[in-house]
Amino acid sequence: MTCVNTCKQNEKEVSVVGKCCPECLGTWLTTDKTTIVKLIGQPVELSCKVDGHVNVAKVTWIRFNPGYEEVTGLTNTYSLSADKLTLTIIKLTQNTLGNYKCVAESDAGSRAEAAIEVT
Questions:
Q1: Which of 3, 16, 34, 67 could covalently link to 21 via disulfide, CB atoms 3.0 to 4.6 Å apart?
Q2: How far apart, in whole angstroms, are the C-alpha atoms of residue 72 and residue 27?
Q3: What is the reported pTM?
Q4: Strand blocks (E) in the chain
Q5: How many angstroms separate the CA atoms of 109 and 95, rounded?
Q6: What is the pLDDT of residue 112?
Q7: d(Cα 6, Cα 91) in Å, to the nearest integer?
């Protein structure tokens, strides 16, 4: 599992790779799977879970491959759950294969990321 917590501590950003960032009371984001293998044409559901007692202000999904693309809203390709913690690829194609990252930001300014590869 690839996860990073970023939070402000004494006005400096601190990144911690691991299960938690207790000194910052940041958000922790996990995924059930780090790699998902599906057949072309199948739907794919990617989900992240926020653990802890933090108010999540914003959730963003980012797709890398070949480049950087923020995944937004309901399109012919993607749909997002109301809380934005679940991203559905409606129909997997060669263009939607790649690495996806779920990024959550809390009201307090902490940030957590979790990555999922779709192959």
A1: 16
A2: 22
A3: 0.73
A4: 3-9, 12-17, 28-31, 35-36, 44-51, 56-64, 68-71, 78-80, 86-89, 98-106, 111-118
A5: 33
A6: 83
A7: 33
